[in-house]
Write a structure and sequence with these properties.
alpha/beta, seven-stranded mixed sheet, 9 helices, about 35% helix, globular
Length: about 210
């Protein structure tokens, strides 16, 4: 049996043991419960995921942070690439998603935090780090409550190390308005093989 198939079966078994629904049911439940925070009715494609993390220098990554992990569409591919001594911290305001990830991911490098991305500096410090190397986010910046997107963008820039990057995937190109006040070196591409096509941004801290 392929390792990926075996791992998927182990995840499903842990989920059943914890009484956790399937990823699709969890994602739909999260969308219906709070569509403003989930931002899409379908999870991102694996092609989008690979495209988004393709510019990460994994050898130089000791701490990766993810905002809004949902059911782990990005989380698991990141863990597959992450070094054995590195750490992945995911932050979500939805307790259902946090419970699901804790129940289905068994990895000492992984930590799921119930909280706000605006508190990323405190959360990073609590995990024994001063700075993060990379941070990725699928949070719907344009529909967040007024001021929250700007607060998250500033906190993210402050906690990143020089040379690190903020990786943002969105469906609304206006997300650039949240990035430009803090980053001057920004790469942009579009992932067409996604429903809907996604805007991809890499904001590099100089």
């Amino acid at each position: 049996m392929p390792a990926s198939t075996a791992a998927a079966k182990r995840r499903r078994a842990r989920a059943r043991a914890a009484g956790v629904p399937s990823p699709w049911v969890m994602f739909l439940k999260g969308f219906l419960k709070n569509p403003v925070m989930v931002g899409a009715v379908a999870s991102s494609s694996q092609r989008l995921v690979r495209h988004m993390i393709s510019k990460v220098d994994w050898d130089q990554c000791k701490l990766f942070v993810e905002y809004g992990p949902g059911v782990g569409t990005f989380t698991r591919p990141i863990l597959e690439q992450l070094g054995p001594d590195a750490k992945l911290v995911v932050i979500d305001t939805n307790p259902d998603f946090i419970q699901y990830l804790r129940a289905t991911i068994d990895d000492p490098r992984f930590s799921a935090v119930l909280g706000s991305a605006a508190d990323v500096q405190r959360i990073v410090n609590e995990h024994g780090f001063e700075q993060a190397d990379y941070i990725t986010s699928g949070l719907p910046f344009s529909t967040l409550p007024p001021g929250v997107g700007d607060q998250i963008a500033k906190a993210t820039h402050d906690v990143l190390r020089p040379g690190g990057a903020f990786l943002v995937y969105q469906y609304n190109p206006k997300v650039r308005n949240f990035l430009t006040p803090h980053w001057s070196n920004i790469d942009h591409e579009v992932e067409w093989w996604n429903i809907p096509p996604a805007q991809l941004w890499w904001a590099w801290k100089e």
